[in-house]
Amino acid sequence: MTHTSVAAYAAPAPKAPLERTTIPRRELGAHDILIDIKFAGICHSDIHTARAEWGEGGHFPLVPGHEIAGVVAATGSAVSRYAVGDRVGVGCFVDSCRECDNCRAGIEQYCTGELGNVGTYNAVGRDGEPTQGGYSTHLVVDENYALRIPESIPLDAAAPLLCAGITVYSPLAHWQAGPGKKVAVVGLGGLGHMGVKIAHAMGAEVTVLSQSLRKKDDGLRFGADAYHATSDPATFEALAGTFDLIINTVSADLDLNAYLSLLRTDGTLVQLGAPEKPLTVAPFALIGGRRSFAGSLIGGIRETQEMLDFCGEHSIAADIELISADRINEAYERVLASDVRYRFVIDTSTI
Q1: In sequence order, what DSSP letters do the residues of 261-284 get, joined into one string?
Q2: Are residues 52 and 174 in the same domain?
Q3: Do residues 33 and 129 share a domain?
Q4: Measuring CA to CA, which residue among 300, 144, 314, 174 is closest to residue 244?
Q5: C-alpha dist (Å) from residue 214 to 164, 234, 341
Q6: Which of 109, 131, 255, 343 would disulfide-bridge 190, Cβ 3.0–4.6 Å?
Q7: 100 Cβ contact list (under 8 Å, min separation 6)
Q8: 182 and 227 belong to one structural domain
Q9: pTM
Q10: pLDDT surpasses 70 at 2
């Protein structure tokens, strides 16, 4: 198989600073499109993976990035979904087995086939080559795993929708956030600020639960009806038994039992953040109110397109800080310090 070299930023080894390099991209297959990447969001998952914090073996050098927005630059001979010049995005995976029950149901993120859900980076594709992500100038991807970005969403602010947007949209849709439902969003970061915007647009009553009131004005601007500091014990007393749905967007070791106490009977706490260590749940925190503790992983291609169209219709986009590629390592440190409002996006023309 022949390849084309493109510029990228990669972590040469676990925990090593990212540096400029070149990586191979495969030649176009019949159903492939070549994307001229314009913008790539920085997700906390990128940092976890580049620093090997989730314990899995990595494919280094590793190019992170699964919040990709760009323009179709070329198409394979059998491509029917896209044409040169189309605005497209790629999210957290670039392939799946396509044959298992979950793939056939359109929830490819839960692929159970032999190939599995092929991550946009740090995975191995069906060609046997490691996948490399969006901190690069170009990407080749099967047309069936690309998404159309509505014209009403700026490309730079659209990039984070491909992970942060769908990560919160999927559980909000699945647990039917909408009019008459009380939804709490834990954490107002990259995921949380999208959760507030989307839950509000769905018609739910939205409360932000954050460590402090530092971002309260932002939370209310995004559509929150209420904002409470979790560092204040009175918050948990005042809000006991309040919510139908809580989405936890933070990757930290929280007292889940305290948050479960905020659910109404039959309420659900959905875990979205992925901390390094196991979480602890007391059985009676669930049993006492027939409460559920659940998890959710991104979304399938169909639902991700649904999310993009929803955001287009409601003028929803991420609040971003656009950076040049030489600031990626600085941005990583600022993400860890919660010093970003609310998503870093790389201008890939600077790679």
Answers
A1: TTEEEEEEEEE----SS-----HH
A2: no
A3: yes
A4: 174
A5: 21, 17, 12
A6: 343
A7: 111, 112, 113
A8: yes
A9: 0.96
A10: no
